[in-house]
């Protein structure tokens, strides 16, 4: 492979591309869509973050403004938590519109995360959303296929292919040159996207950026470039393999529809079919059943709690729970919370594993469909993927558990065992509980979770490059 | 000659592949629809059993105070899916089909969601609606993009011209042959759907059939129009595909983006905040404040008065009630906003056949937003009904045993029927007529040449 030759071919392809009158029009249309998508992403991030920050502050103030009261009242007063958006979510909406935005946290109960955009949608949302990542994932490949479908076949039809090959240009050089030429055309759109993304990202994160975030962004941008090159190389190869330009165009259109529209839906449906998941009712019933087995704090004759009571009375050498040096009710509730949270966690873990088994069909399908690989990796980097969804739930449950146990602790320490004694504690204790802060996952964790997507992308690159040097030996000039 | 032409067409590779592809996708979608309906039925059956067990267990545990028992007891209202929703799952996988509520605060229970894998929601359901709306147009495109141009490009056009048949008649026949195949496929799939999903033969089904027939006709009219320009096969194919991408992928995303930006719903978060504060702050207030508000809402309960300092369920349920009352303004605003969204989408949909068909299909199948809003409304009434049923018993402190608990079985919601035929079909009829008219005009001028 001679770089000089490749450069010449690439430049030639660039010139040919722009000679087609449809190309500037298409580029302009996609460009306008990108601008709209960027604007919409920016606005949604801005609006949602403003709303959610405002209400989070309100919730915090209300929490602090509670007067003196029984800590268990506070545990039921609870907390409202709102999902925070990652600054990069303006780039890729991922599945965020399908995951709720707010959750009410209280003692003894894990509530659902409610108010997703999908729940507010009339159904139009299900056609897809307009965001930068969608355009880059779906439409740019289409443009690339349009640029590349006749890259070789037109040369063959115009009898110029013979001439090129006679001049000593090898097949790999020719295909590589064409691929780079096409990729260069996509850069007309992609370079502004890169600049705009960096700028918006800086603006939205208030110029307050971490190295980890920077790595995410760079990875995101590289991923898409690689994706475009994979698409371009595939298009050029299909063009070389096709007898006519028309056949090549039909093949590429078929590939696009299959890989981007039909296959992702089909494999996900297959996954969902293979691994049925419980309804909320079945889930809650299962949790409840386990809870009854472990000990039911509501049942006055429950053996588990009776045993605890006996052992407490023995240890402290007292005759009744009223004589214990701490509040007995608080102790029992802390025990109940520990048991129920553990059981819930176990069931939640199983549920998420089942969801992941469903998703694995699509994850493995990424080896057949680079679109799926890019889609998954991109939303993971933008903090809008499946792992962010489970991560938020985990952090929220952790916060809920700590809140409940903190209140139980306060009850044990400060509330009298005697019903006529002090049943209130000072409101100064409320400030001791920190506010909820969602911490985004580190890039390392994303790598681990998205190993399959990354492997699929690299696999595609490798296979196409190997094909470039092997299969081309059998190509004919006519 | 036409029979021969038809034979040639259906024996062609492209036709066979397209037919097999659609049938595979179609039957897969029916399996998915069947599975979806079965799961929903199972959930409903479980709900009925669970409610009974739940009530008898709690009645046994908390048999001393009716007020305490009703703190726990939950009653379910079911929005059973229609068999048609197996054909168009719509928003049914996002919105729950069962709501179980206790008689405390409603606003805290009204928006709970079912468990679902967000990846499944994101990628969407492969239901028959998807096959009809996305995939059928593709085979129409494959079948028709070159019906005219293949003759000129293949050199057979002049042969046709010198024969006795009218070229336009020939074109019509070719179009008709393709329509026969496409509609036969649609009929096969719909008949299978009726059998597999046990769809009742009623007026709603007729509406679905009319809608889908017109939707497919829209794609035929569109390609008829594009073909009538008499451009090359390649040009036609690209135009039709561009139309497909524009209509099925791009315009809906724009409309969605517009609606979610133009009608944001901060009311949702406001509702939960107000409800929580409205109820909880009453614990720290003078009881008479709560009671006065409660009596203002329900004058008929003024006869129940608080006496003494001890805890009374009357006060507790009054506090719960005020939580709802304080949030009422916001939850109403939220509902209004969603209705507005629904209205706007339907209006925009009139001009966009793909959107119109999907939204109408959801409506007919009871899997759209309209159905969900009606259900939510009915949950509100159901909750109110249960409250009013139990309030006197609680306030009078009647014993738990005085109520026949076994009579509280699961209740069902049925959306009011009613098809607005004109809004359903007219938009598609107008667009089809327009496109065919334009095509006819083009071809008429061509004959004059």
TrEMBL record, chain A:
The chain crosses the membrane at residues 22-45, 130-152, 180-205, 217-241, 247-267, 451-471. Signal peptide: none annotated. Pfam families: ABC2_membrane_2 (PF12679), DUF3526 (PF12040). One of its GO terms (cellular component) is plasma membrane. Keywords: Membrane, Transmembrane, Transmembrane helix. GO terms for molecular function: ABC-type transporter activity. This is DUF3526 domain-containing protein. It comes from Chitinophaga tropicalis. The lineage of its organism: Bacteria, Pseudomonadati, Bacteroidota, Chitinophagia, Chitinophagales.
Automatic annotation (TrEMBL), chain B:
PANTHER family: ABC TRANSPORTER PERMEASE (PTHR43471). The keyword Transmembrane helix applies. This is DUF3526 domain-containing protein. It holds the Pfam family ABC2_membrane_2. The keyword Membrane applies. The chain crosses the membrane at residues 12-32, 128-148, 175-197, 203-227, 234-255, 421-444. Keywords: Membrane, Transmembrane, Transmembrane helix.
